[in-house]
Design brief:
Elements: H1 8-17, H2 19-26, E1 38-44, E2 47-52, E3 55-56, H3 58-62, H4 67-70, E4 74-80, E5 85-90, H5 91-107, E6 115-120, H6 124-135, E7 139-144, H7 149-159, E8 163-167, E9 169-172, E10 175-178, H8 180-189, E11 196-200, E12 214-216, H9 217-223, E13 234-235, E14 241-244, E15 254-257, H10 260-272, E16 281-284, H11 291-303, E17 307-312, H12 322-330, E18 332-337, H13 339-346, E19 363-367, H14 373-383, E20 387-390, E21 401-402, E22 419-420, E23 425-429, E24 444-449, E25 459-460, H15 464-472, E26 480-489, E27 495-500, E28 504-507, E29 510-513, H16 514-522, E30 527-537, E31 541-550, H17 554-557, H18 559-577, E32 585-588, H19 602-609, H20 623-632
Parallel strand pairs: 4-17, 6-7, 6-8, 7-14, 8-11, 11-12, 16-17, 16-18, 18-19, 19-20, 31-32
Antiparallel strand pairs: 1-2, 3-13, 4-5, 9-10, 14-15, 15-25, 21-22, 23-24, 24-26, 26-27, 28-29, 30-31
Helix pairs in contact: 1-2, 5-6, 7-8, 10-11, 13-14, 16-18
Bound molecules: adenosine-5'-triphosphate (ATP) and magnesium ion (MG).
The site of magnesium ion (MG) has 2 residues, from loops.
Length: about 625
Amino acid sequence: MAGAETTFREFYRQSIDRPDKFWAEQAKRIDWQVPPQQICDYSQPPFARWFVGGTTNLCHNAVDRHLASRADQPALIFVSTETDQEQVYTYAQLHTEVQRMAAVLKDLGVEQGDRVLIYMPMIPEAAFAMLACVRIGAIHSVVFGGFASGSLATRIEDAEPKVVVSADAGSRGGKVVAYKPLLDEAIELSRHKPRRVLMVDRKLAPMTWLEKRDVLWSELRAQHLNDHVPCTWVDATHTSYTLYTSGTTGKPKGVQRDTGGYAVALAASMDLIYQGQPGETYFCTSDIGWVVGHSYIIYGPLIHGMSTLMYEGLPIRPDAGIWWQLVEKYKVTRMFSAPTAVRVLKKQDPAHLKQYDLSSLKALYLAGEPLDQPTAQWISEGLGVPIIDNYWQTETGWPIMTIANGVEPAPSKFGSPGVPMYGYHLKLINENTGEDLVGHQEKGVVAIEGPLPPGCLQTIWKDDERFVNTYWKSIPDRLVYNTFDWGIRDEDGYYFILGRTDDVINVAGHRLGTREIEECIAGHSQVAEVAVVGVADALKGQVAMAFVVPRDNHYLQDDAAKLRLEGEIMKLVDGQLGAVARPSRVLFVSLLPKTRSGKLLRRALQAVCEGRDPGDLTTMDDPAALHQLRSLFT
Ligand code: ATP
Ligand code: MG
């Protein structure tokens, strides 16, 4: 483990040059029933098998092993501003609830290796269900609550769950979203039919019941109040869960994750990257439907003996101070969110940040999307703590790049998610020639030399071929993992993500990253949000088109003001990036099309601009965004 004298550079070197020794050391952070016999089996690249021969259990590491020393410490703090509930579960109570859930699942016929699909809002039972699955060696597949029946159906069909765990409803901004009808419809649509459906009744929406199939959590729980369900020791390589990517670029991929490697990777990251201390409170504002929620609402903080705060609600309800109120109340030390959420807060009164005592907070971590400088600066000044960007993917389960202040404190640079993390043999590669780029300021594809470190995907669920062909065969003559993100490295070794490889546009022979243009436009004081896409143009090949959400809504009504702002934005781009990067048009909208996870749906924007069918929109959040766009083009 990192000593005070270790430099990050040396630490990183060790992880790349002597990975077995490095990860054997990290593996000591978790409990093993049988210690690993081999650290990494990479005999069949690109498939890496970590900690072969070892047996362990994720739930044991997240819950049971803390009972001796922290039984009465809060483990799960649940806060809902949707239903005005607050409930704290100690480690002992969490242990009891998870065993009840595990007993119920077993009762319903769930066995080791069976899949359990979890389609739930952010309620404690969702956490119990995840932990109960891994406790008995079942594989969970969490689907973001409120996904429409079509997206849910494809995931049910792919995961083939024996049991589905769900709830009567979710709630968003005070509006109840009934889940049961969506679930029933999805099962109807799916060729695979789950045997049983376990429903949590929050009493938010009525439920129609299918006898023989549907069962009620409260009833079954009552039958298993005192059950003891021991952890099933599973191989380190046993699949713990599957989870679908956001679908920003296309059809979602079913990421399959192991057990031992994941536990070790998370345990290490909690210390080396997030610097949480056992006993402190961690607050991750994501959702259990996303990878960030899996790793840093549920497993990471609990494995590390922290209290984790699970929040159901919007960041601006009852007002934009709610998160900071929770930070004060629960003395949160480490917080994790996404740039999109911070941008939402930024549109609100900044006074909310000053209302609460935030002295417990030591850092805010942001991931999921490019973090633009104005957003980072705004929140950094507001909170007075370091803002630490981290870059990763559903596929990797933990950061590929960030700053590991727990190894060696280092400054962050605005606009950069930091440096490659230990274990990731990162490369910038020329996508055409497949050659490594060694110089600075050369743009390349961000790629990872195998084996991927512990915690990363084992494969794509039921589709090894897609795993190999999608990620490992896209660069000529090389077997490297392609992130499909475009990056650049500066002289200090800091990386900058320039966008996705399919976001690069070609204007009259000049290759431009849409991210750079966005970054520049976001610098205008009247711009709240911006998206730039490349649109086919007969003359220039492609031109950039910018969509701007103005800070002030009056721009949307006032044509003269729009024209003025458009001119200012173009001048700004001209001045900073040159005339080739200047968008051919700047269009103003009140919202942008996003995925349910808050990521920009660039392919939808582009399709509308080019008058094409936007393709699969099942992952899209608010259809109003698309209607608004279409109206601009008719
Ligand atoms: P799909 O792969 O299905 O199209 P997705 O890539 O949006 O969906 P995720 O795994 O949720 O699914 O997102 C990972 C991607 O998000 C990264 O590849 C990168 O493009 C972007 N990203 C994540 N974190 C950052 C960050 N800190 N800075 C810039 N981009 C980021
Ligand atoms: Mg992706």
